[in-house]
Hints:
By secondary structure, this protein is an alpha+beta fold. It has helices at residues 57-74, 92-107, and strands spanning 2-5, 21-24, 27-33, 46-49, 52-55, 82-90, 113-119, 128-135.
Amino acid sequence: MLERIVVTSLPDPMLSNHPHCVVTGDLVFVSGLVSERRSDGSRVGVEDRQEGRVHDLEAQMSSIFQQLDVILEAAGSNKAHIADVQVFLLRMADNFTLMNEIYGAYFGATVPARTTIEVVRFPSDVLIELKVVASVEKRTRV
């Protein structure tokens, strides 16, 4: 049995035809997460300035981790139960070191398995997307 979860306090993923996560058995499969949309339609960590478009990887990852925490809670889990993370990263040579530092600060000692893949571009103008698999912490989900 599959339970599809859409968290109403987060941007609606159904506009892209997917839920925030799917729970089956004791596993939570979180759909790919990018930085949240602001009320003006722009992405967190992406700003248009006079000198051109500027990306803030730390702000984008902070937005992703905030969303991830909310989604996992709705699914009856938390970051300590994350088993696997797939990181899709734009311009790995420029962004890997900082991504790795921010990632390490978020996970601390609860280090899940990880794969980091360089991508050419995303549908949204962002630097990073995360895909997560976790186990369910408790049987009663929100």
